[in-house]
């Protein structure tokens, strides 16, 4: 009798596990439907995308190599046509290569652009376009540009502090919107915070907050957009530093709270680590809750998907040691929010209240279950920008 029960159990257990990693489903058809809705309301609204396009490196699956992804990336941009596109990670050569495939109206700014402008003929570094801003020159005119290193010495090229694993930067562009009756300016910031050090992410975001403040005091009639890969989840400390007392607003939250005149989808992740649409399933949401909670406490978690079983066991052992750092009520609340986005679009209205950005659309898009553009899915928003 007991053996029969055991057999029955072992046959039944895989069923809930299979369900956990199957639902909810989000298909390429859902993504296509989102695109149709977006195009139907795009008109001349301001469209803004943030997209970690991943560096050009060795990939375990050759189908994920940049040479394979470049045409998919291009197709994604051609479909959604963001007027402002903040990218993260590309090497200089990678960005220039990709740019030659994009529609002609895209211009870009990174570090080298700036240094050449000032006739300082520096040797181009691979990192010069890691947080490049691309823009449609038929919609926007570049008025001013700056570039900072997110360290204690922001003007020192290549500097880093606070145990930051990588050199992290902030790209800044001031644009004028073309074809509007009134002079309209927007300040665009694009960044990529450190992947390993929680202390670095927090200090880097404080520096971003104070930099935005300085720029906006100088240009009080300009609205602000902050795009990036923040390597942390909404509601974690980095997010709170940037959004505290409504300094910056989270387009996702604003859109969801005005659901009658703002369209959005429900897709739980932007980073998918080549799992694709599968990251949206309850099973992977649960895993993400656990990993991100550790990540937020400063525990270093592997930022590559482990390949061997032994690696998984090492990770579990490591996490077990830090279990006491976990706040279960925080974990339950982040699990129930179903939002593990590390890529955000934040905004702030003009200080002189002359202009308002009002979100009309925001979604995680380009969702696929194969033939990926990147190991992140981009986020795109549409704004009304009016007096
Ligand atoms: C966390 O985020 C959710 C929305 O994602 C929000 O409703 C809630 O107030 C936030 N909680 C805290 C403590 O910030
Ligand atoms: C867990 O977090 C909640 C809210 O963020 C807080 O009120 C509570 O005191 C925390 N608990 C522990 C044990 O730190
Ligand atoms: C990926 O693209 C190839 C070639 O275009 C195609 O044969 C294949 O079905 C695609 N795979 C998926 C999962 O879309």
TrEMBL record:
InterPro entries membership: CCR4/nocturin_mRNA_transcr, Endo/exonu/phosph_ase_sf, Endo/exonuclease/phosphatase
Keywords (A to Z) from UniProt: Signal
rRNA processing in keyword set: no
Gene3D superfamilies recorded: Endonuclease/exonuclease/phosphatase
UniProt KW Signal keyword: yes
Cleaved signal peptide residues: 1-20
Top-level taxon: Eukaryota
Ranges for domain Endonuclease/exonuclease/phosphatase: 49-376
Any GO MF annotation of the entry: 3'-5'-RNA exonuclease activity
SUPFAM superfamilies: DNase I-like
Official protein name in the record: Endonuclease/exonuclease/phosphatase domain-containing protein
Organism per entry: Adineta ricciae
Lineage: Eukaryota, Metazoa, Spiralia, Gnathifera, Rotifera
């Amino acid at each position: 009798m007991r053996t029969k029960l055991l057999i029955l159990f072992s046959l039944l257990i895989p069923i809930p596990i299979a369900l956990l990693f199957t639902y909810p489903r989000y298909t390429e058809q859902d993504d296509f439907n989102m695109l149709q809705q977006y195009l139907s309301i795009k008109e001349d609204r301001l469209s803004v995308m943030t997209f970690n396009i991943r560096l050009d490196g060795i990939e375990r699956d050759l189908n994920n190599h940049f040479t394979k992804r470049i045409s998919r990336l291009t197709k994604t941009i051609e479909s959604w046509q963001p007027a402002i596109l903040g990218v993260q990670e590309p090497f200089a050569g990678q960005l220039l290569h990709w740019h030659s495939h994009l529609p002609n109206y895209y211009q870009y700014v990174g570090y080298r652009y700036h240094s050449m402008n000032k006739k300082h003929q520096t040797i181009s570094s691979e990192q010069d376009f890691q947080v490049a801003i691309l823009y449609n020159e038929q919609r926007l005119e570049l008025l001013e540009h700056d570039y900072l290193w997110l360290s204690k010495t922001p003007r020192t090229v290549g500097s880093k502090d606070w145990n930051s694993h990588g050199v992290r930067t902030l790209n800044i562009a001031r644009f004028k919107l073309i074809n509007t009756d009134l002079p309209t300016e927007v300040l665009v910031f694009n960044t990529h915070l450190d992947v390993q050090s929680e202390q670095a992410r927090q200090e880097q975001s404080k520096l971003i907050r104070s930099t935005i403040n300085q720029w906006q005091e100088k240009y009080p009639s300009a609205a602000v957009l902050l795009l990036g890969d923040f390597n942390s989840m909404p509601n974690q400390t980095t997010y709170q530093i940037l959004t505290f007392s409504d300094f910056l607003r989270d387009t996702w939250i604003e859109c969801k709270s005005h659901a009658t005149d703002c369209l959005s989808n429900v897709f739980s992740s932007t980073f998918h680590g080549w799992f694709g649409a599968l990251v949206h399933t309850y099973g992977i949401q649960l895993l993400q809750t656990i990993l991100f909670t550790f990540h937020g406490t400063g525990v270093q978690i592997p930022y590559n998907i482990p390949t061997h079983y032994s690696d998984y066991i090492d990770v579990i052992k490591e996490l077990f040691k830090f279990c006491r750092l976990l706040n279960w009520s925080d974990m339950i609340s982040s699990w129930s929010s179903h939002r593990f986005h590390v890529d955000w679009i934040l905004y702030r209205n003009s200080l002189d209240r002359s202009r308002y950005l009002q979100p009309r659309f925001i979604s995680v898009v380009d969702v696929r279950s194969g033939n990926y553009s990147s190991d992140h899915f981009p986020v795109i928003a549409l704004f009304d920008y009016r007096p």
